[in-house]
Amino acid sequence: MKKIFYTTISLFFLGGAVSAQTFNIKQLAGRWESAEGGGLEVIDSSRIYIVYGNEKKQIAHYKADFSKTPVSFDFTVNDDGHEISMKSLLLLVNGDLLQWQVFEGDAKPVHFTADNGDMIYMKRKK
């Protein structure tokens, strides 16, 4: 009886760990907007845009580590011939809410922090 109980508990925790790792770029597909009007638009893994009002800049390159929580999401945007590199963290809170913290410079913590960076909450537009 104990063996069955421990096996069931182990499978429960293992199932939770596996489902936590299923977050990927496909789940971000769509348009995400903050209350201030900024956000992200993810078409697919090769077409991601930063949006603010009527401006839309394509992310030229990005590196995302979906094995971490929050996701490490570093990207480069070309702005009027200048390459701007940003470091950020992403957390899909639920299917329609995304938490995003963007940091300037080289320093980036592994967890969200109130000490530096801009925290943005975005809702998926339907």
Structural class category: alpha+beta
Walk across the major sheet and give the strand order. Answer: 1-2-3-4-5-6-7-8
Distance between the termini: 49 Å
Shape: globular
In the predicted model, the low-confidence regions spanning at least 5 consecutive residues are 1-21
Reported CATH architecture: Beta Barrel
Approximate strand percentage: over 45%
Can you give a write-up of this model?
Strands 1-2-3-4-5-6-7-8 form an 8-stranded antiparallel barrel. It has one helix spanning 2-20; strands at residues 30-33, 38-44, 47-52, 55-65, 71-79, 82-94, 97-103, 118-125. The chain has 126 residues and is an alpha+beta fold. A hairpin with a 2-residue loop joins strand 3 (47-52) and strand 4. It has a single domain (25-125), classed as Lipocalin, CATH 2.40.128. It has 1 helix and 8 strands; from the N terminus they run H-E-E-E-E-E-E-E-E.
Short characterization:
This protein is of the alpha+beta class and 126 residues long.
